[in-house]
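Team,

Forwarding the record for the chain on the shared tracking sheet. I've put the sequence and predicted structure together so nobody has to dig through attachments.
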Amino acid sequence: MNSMKSLLLAGVVLCAAMASLSAEGPYFANGAKVGEVNQNSAIVWVRLTQSAEADFEQLPIFTMGLEEGAKDEGSMPADVVPGMAGEVRVIFGPKDGNTTRSTDWESVSSLSDYVFQFRIKGLKADTEYAYLVESRKPLATEVSNKLSGHFKTAPKADAEAAIRFIVTTCQAIRSIDSGREGHLTYKQMLEFNPDFLVHTGDIVYYDKAPLAKNIPQARAKWNLMFAYGNNQRFHQNVTSYFMKDDHDTLKNDCWPGQTYGDLTFEQGLELFREQVPMGDKTYRTYRWGKDVQIWMTENRDYRSSNRMEDGPEKTILGAKQKAWLKRTIEASDATYKFVISPGPIVGPDKAGKKDNHGNDVFFTEGQDLRDFLSAQENTYVICGDRHWQYMSKDPKTGLMELGSGAINDQHNYGGNPGEVPEYHQYFSGNGGFLGISVKNGQATAQWVKADYSSEKPEVLFTKAL
């Protein structure tokens, strides 16, 4: 404990994935994730593993991505990052403070994929926290390995605070661009110095090469995605909020009751909550100071079949979530309100799509949302799922939608509608991320792509909101 206290008091936070104390596990090949952070609590997600890193040599796609034109086929190896039974705890404290606290030691097993999620409470608002995760073998007293990181808590709702956050979407093993380091964008997102990240979903693709059609294969995809260096270091050191969409629930454009191989829709819901830090509901809202409030909608759990005839009863959000969304937005006094959706509400989408509020098959609920949101002051939709970046203005209601684009240009498969002047105030076929900065009551959006010729990302377009 004394060594950890010295670490925290000095404000030293290691960016390395692991500082090994032992030649034996349990290890932290999947790093840690910190999510669902508010003014006074957070969830720290950890997984214990047999080895210090993934077996990246099993398939070339793990480090080389998928060649253009190659077919999505082959099965995901279930043993790419095997888990290990053991015990784990978290020691944490303000980065610049003089006190530390520790959780109890907790056991993990195969029943939860060797994952444990620590809900830590009693935190201070608007504070940088350092943490140290320790592992040991079952019933042992000697610590095997350590992992360190940091995160920031949200300012109080009445606090004047400059806020910077990032939104991205759609990443896959088939589109990694940096070998064992994974996605370069994660490294360059740190250059933005974000307070937090929102990932809008499609974090893994069960239905893209290599395919995951059962629980062990699905878990292995999550395990590999967060064994990549850039991906792991980012989430280890930045407050993150995770949303899900179709590909990390089951398969493309899925809805309740469907299956993919031996994987069921209901199992997909459980796996998502297991593999990311997640609270009671997958739809939620968080306040970050006086000027910023975000809403994250759940677009899979409560939806109607895409094939159902459109009308007042057809829904993506479900009645309970939609009522919550409207009620909480109307009650908010935040300067800016950002409704973050896994799919478009405004669009325009590519031709033939039948899965979101920007499509005709969900027109009734989509129009209800556009009418409501456009009537709320300083309210913007931020959209995931689409593999291109854009800023759209709905011609009928004036509602503004900001599309983040996929994680990188390698993920631009799937086509795009091209620029539509009637809608688009900005359009690009690139991937990367969307950055939002709010300072002194003024919000600015920046669309950014990973720059392979520089240490810093490339800003493609900037717009005051």
